[in-house]
Amino acid sequence: MLPFFIPCIRVEIGSDAPLQYEGSIPSDFSVPNAMKSLYGNFDPSAKVSVATLPTTGAKSSYFDAGQKINVRPFWVIGAKDSDTSKIYLLTFATPDAKSFGCH
C-alpha cells in the first residue's frame, strides 16, 4: 500500500476576503465572465452572483428550497491534467438574508 498525502489548507472566505489565485491561469480567463456563465449574473462591484436554489431535489439544513443565495468566488486554481490545461473556480454561498451566521 502506498502512503498518500492530503494537504490541509486554511482558507479565509468572506465578502471582503481577497480572491486567491494558484497555478498557471491563462491571461484571457475572467472571473466575472466565468461567474456570469455559471450563475447568469455577476455584480463586479459587490463581487457576487445571486442565484435561486431549486425547489425540488435534495434537502439541506442550511438552505431552504427556492431561497436566493449570494455566490462569491474565493479561489481560482490552474492545473494540468494529461497535458490539458484546466481552471477550477471555487465559490461559496450564503443566504441572501442578512441574518446568516456560520455554524
Question: Can you describe what's shown?
Answer:
This protein has 103 residues and is mainly beta. It has a domain at 20-58 and 67-95. It is 9% helix and 32% strand. It has one helix and four strands. It has one helix at residues 31-39, and strands spanning 20-22, 49-52, 68-81, 84-95. Strands 1, 2, 3 and 4 form a four-stranded mixed beta sheet that branches. Strand 3 and strand 4 (84-95) form a beta hairpin. The termini are far apart. Mean pLDDT is 80; it is low at 4-10.
Could you give a short description of this structure?
Helices cover 9% and strands 32% of the residues. It is mainly β and 103 residues long. Strands 1, 2, 3 and 4 form a 4-stranded mixed sheet that branches.
Give the topology.
Layout: E1 20-22, H1 31-39, E2 49-52, E3 68-81, E4 84-95
Parallel strand pairs: 1-3
Antiparallel strand pairs: 2-3, 3-4
How would you state the average pLDDT, rounded?
80
Q: What is the overall number of helices?
A: 1
Q: What is the CA-atom radius of gyration, in angstroms?
A: 16 Å
Q: Largest sheet, described in full?
A: 4 strands, mixed
The beta-strand count equals: 4
